[in-house]
Amino acid sequence: MGQLSFPGFCLHWQVLAAAYVFLGLVTGAQSAAAPNTVVLDPATLADAKMRLGLRPVDPTLRTALNSLTAQADKWLTQGPWSVTYKKDPPPGGDIHDYSSQAPYFWASKSPDGCPYIQKDGERNPEADAKYPDHATRRLMFDSSYVLTLAWYYTGKEQYARKAGDILRTWFISPATRMNPNLNHAQLIPCANTGRFIGIIDWSQGFTSVVDAAAILATGAPGWTATDIEAFRQWNVDYLVWLGKSQFGRDETAATNNHGTYAIMQSAGVALFTKNTALAQKKANLMKSRIAAYITANGSQPQELSRTRSFHYSTYDLIAYTRIAAIAKKVGVDLWGYKGPQGQSIHGAVDFIIPAATGEAKWKYPELEFDAREASDIIRASADAGNANAKRALGKVPALLGGDLYHLRPAAEQLSALP
Fold first, then answer.
1. In the chain, how many domains are there?
2. For residue 323, how many C-alpha atoms fall within 13 Å in the half-sphere facing its CB?
């Protein structure tokens, strides 16, 4: 467990949080057990919650909380969503299967549109129109996470009940639950009924959903013991599919961001389901990826070859930073790991800092450069001790719609792609 350090003494964070609750200094928030989150650090969450209960409130935290609750209030009137709400069943005929269309493939000029042609980085609007699961799973990811965090920090029951309803509808209720597989993700019309790389639809966002469920499990109103066990079992089954299916094995072996995300996702789900040995195995596997796919100067060649090279360089780093957080919980230090030529996660962050801060122009292909995509990655690296990242703080353009990092301190995908 984490600790909070102060001059002259060190106090376990659970004791400190309990003391503040006992003294009545935490206002407007529930007293709950520590969440067994897989990416977010429980100590950091508890510290932020404690400081929100003090007067005067830290202005940075107050601003973040205002943004968080504003987003949560909007989600209260939306959803829930389900894979069963789509008009047509996916290939195979089971409406409970998740399905999506490869976003960068476009119909050719032939009468039937076949074959579909790849245009890397250019998203085909047809994909979401024909296969809405891709869009609705993002709504489910974002809403359940924001609503849960809003409940954690404010104690307002309506946030927890809405988050629980969203998760229960997508994962648990027999009539609407998703089957725990991605057999029909990112299919290409005329070519196949799904591809292993479709697992990327799920990889990053789902670990935030798992963290949301872990927070709800600390005593959220409406999230019952039955819900907790049913969601745990869904994850057990999904982890089996990730490990045994050919899709799962192929995605794990991918040499670009797909493989990084596949390993990160499996590590997070393993930790959530208390399969610590598998989580450790996946965390240690990431060392070989750092050595193989990050160069000595911090570049990621597989991502630099893309038409959206800055986006994919930062996107891959989200997975690296998130599994570093997971690994820490099972005794593996990925932040401190260096490959034979000094390759490291921090080094990869250093590589993107000059472009993200405007100190140098990004000199690789990029259809739509957006420095803000690097914001969370730089802060995660700074939190882990990177002096270069600490100096870069505040130099990346501000995020639109409110910055929640101080209340959910982990790198998140800050754009709609992929």
1. 1
2. 31
